[in-house]
Amino acid sequence: QAVPAGSHVRLNLQTGEREAKLPHSADGNGDTREGRRRTRYRDAAGWVGCGVDVDANSFTSQELKEALAKMKASEKAERKVRRAQEEEVRKKFRPIEQLKEEFEKLNMKMETDYEIMVKLISKFNSSASTLDEKVAALYDLEYYVHQV
Description:
Blueprint: E1 8-11, E2 18-21, H1 33-38, E3 47-49, H2 61-92, H3 96-105, H4 113-125, H5 131-147
Antiparallel strand pairs: 1-2, 2-3
Helix pairs in contact: 4-5
């Protein structure tokens, strides 16, 4: 059963019921309208039995619409922040294709770990490789797999 965020949940071993303790404000009462409505179901320690259906219509349609609007607005804000972070990373680093082209101009071949691992596997599977080459390929492959 769903309980409000921040609630504490326990299993009452005497009754066998699962119970939830609802959050309290500083004065000890529930700080929400729903919390005030549910106070009559609490025991002395503030625990509420989860098996009790307090109020099936605890939210109005307007409250749900407002909550959904807030969720959508926060999601849009999060997307903007994520895009800004991605753009910042793109400014700091160059794509691998560009780096490969620059290294080729310098007559240097840059290989990714994946490409090296494929070569090592093919060397290991090759019937033309000696036992020492296969053992060396396995040791090198172990290093690259460990990084992944």
